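Example (one chain per record):
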Amino acid sequence: WVDPVSIARALWLWIQWVRPIQGASTVDQQVIKLDRGQFTRNRRAKILENRWALNLQLHHSKETILLRYLNTIPFSHQIVGWKAACESYRNKSCEYLSDEELLLTLVIGQLWANPYTEAWWKQVLGRAQMFSRVMPELFSGSLILTDALSDRLHSFPAPLDPRVTEFIKKTLTAWKSAYDTSLSQRLDSLLERTKVQRNQYSIEDCCVVVLDAQGNLVSMNMCRSWDDEASWKINSCLLPRQTWSAIKPFVYLYAFHHLWLQATDTIVDEPVSYDLWGWALYDPKNFDLTYHGEVTYAYALWNSLNVPAVKTVYQIGVEPFLQFIKEQINRLAPNTPLNPKTAEEVGLSVALGTYEMSVWQFAQLRRLLLPTWWLPQYEIARRAIVAILSDPTNKLVSFWQDTPLNTPWWAVKTGTSRKFVDGWICGVQTAVQNWKVICLWLGNVSQAPMLGPSSEVWSYLWSLIVDEIEK
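Predicted structure:
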């Protein structure tokens, strides 16, 4: 969160010129400055920035911090944020810019320069040349500069904290290759359009994560920005939440493979009790507080019955199933904080989604239902689960005829608690080669319950999101 080399260089230049001519702030410190709107240069301010920068790194990933910086970096002409700069200076979205245009736009923000003046433009070109040397893998295009200007660049101070260079490479490359700025803007508009309906059901927060088959981020949208004071400055897409019944496809995926089960095999939905450590009983109940007797596994999944799911986890074992989930999260969403809860801590209720994970992690986990090479040994089980979730007849039985959740060519599963603390809708696209994954979470960061049943809002928003993606 601090760069000792840059600090030493800035102090040396200060001593030589008897005035501060170069800063030494890292990206973390720049985010703090932009957030506070305080750019005073003194020892007390620098100490506070260092402390807050450390706190920022403890609570947010470097990718989140960098994205926050790029979205709030000020440009000239009252332009704020990377997206607005692309539109204003280049008259097109960021993903359509060439390497050179991306590079120059980033430099304009770094220098806070007016690119329409000759003097500033020379500095922009100079800084751009230095950037291309720092990140040659990303900016491979050559920039045409005069020899005199090139000679001047050799002593030009590098403004980047070297520890975030890799994240800049990855983020900008992802924007160019996968991130859909146009879709992101349209989804932001959808969330704004449904604000009235969400407020009627006391839904303050939400997150939409859209991935491609390789796990690249296509769009990430929230009802409230993570820097909103009312949201406690928490990125709701990275906040661990219980997944509830949305986890059940993976319960049956694991069970179908290891117990050699089929969708047409049966299980009895009946009152059961399990002894917990010799002093308590766990007696799971279905959401509707009724029992359905002997049912097929397909019926249990599409009707989201709790008792069959718990009985299935009891058969396969809590420890093996939880280990399977953790291994897949580590593989599909590496470098994300993993919930440390053990099998003893979550118990059989893991079948009902009590093991918390973030929307980002859960969306990555959903990729296991795509027809790819992730788990070839589970392919037969995967096909069975997807067939159950995407069958129009099953959707009519569980979601009713007029529900917006009955979207063709999508394998969808919902999840919520009886008190409506969280609402989940996650699905995978099954009809085309450019498969997509969508995970929608709604609720309140404060853990306050929604006014239920609010599934009409979730399903309506889901259908709007699917329409935008299929465009």
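Caption: The beta strands are 205-212, 217-222, 266-269, 274-276, 280-282, 293-296, 410-416, 422-429, 436-443.
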